[in-house]
Every structure is written in C-alpha cells, then in structure tokens.
Amino acid sequence: MKYQISEIKNYMEGWARKDFQLSWDNSGSQIEFKGDTESVVLALDISDKVIDKAIKMNSKLIITHHPMFFFWGKKNYPGNL
C-alpha cells in the first residue's frame, strides 16, 4: 500500500499544530520528499540506524520526536531521490 506524504504531513500538522510549539522549537518538515511512500519510520531521534532502516524499508518518510536540525532558524530542505 502506498501513502501520500502530503496527506500524512497534513494530518500530523493538524494534530500537532504549529501554534502549540514554542518560539525556539524547530518543529515540522526539515527534509521533505514529494509523492508517496510505502512505509513510515517512527523514532525518538534521527540516527544512522534509523536512516538505514528507512532505506531498507524503501521509506521516504521518517517521523521523529526530536528534530534533525535544532538551531535558531527554521529551514525546510527539498529532498531528491
């Protein structure tokens, strides 16, 4: 089964609304792929092990509790495959 990444992102943003985050928090997409994915990898933190798991599962979506990039500026990088 394939899942639309945009639908998952929209659901997550509706559930964890941006108006709940603190000013210093870097929530939301940081590296974003378009299209669909066959699986979703969930983790507390991003790590090489988590990325390897996503590659093995052919997943284009990793959802973590802690951001990959934690700094004073919000950025979103487009992903390319």
From TrEMBL:
Keywords: Metal-binding. SUPFAM superfamilies: NIF3 (NGG1p interacting factor 3)-like. Gene3D superfamilies: NIF3 (NGG1p interacting factor 3)-like. The keyword Cytoplasm does not apply. Coiled coil: none annotated. The keyword Metal-binding applies. Pfam families: DUF34_NIF3. Belongs to the GTP cyclohydrolase I type 2/NIF3 family. This is GTP cyclohydrolase 1 type 2 homolog. It comes from Peptoniphilus gorbachii. The lineage of its organism: Bacteria, Bacillati, Bacillota, Tissierellia, Tissierellales.
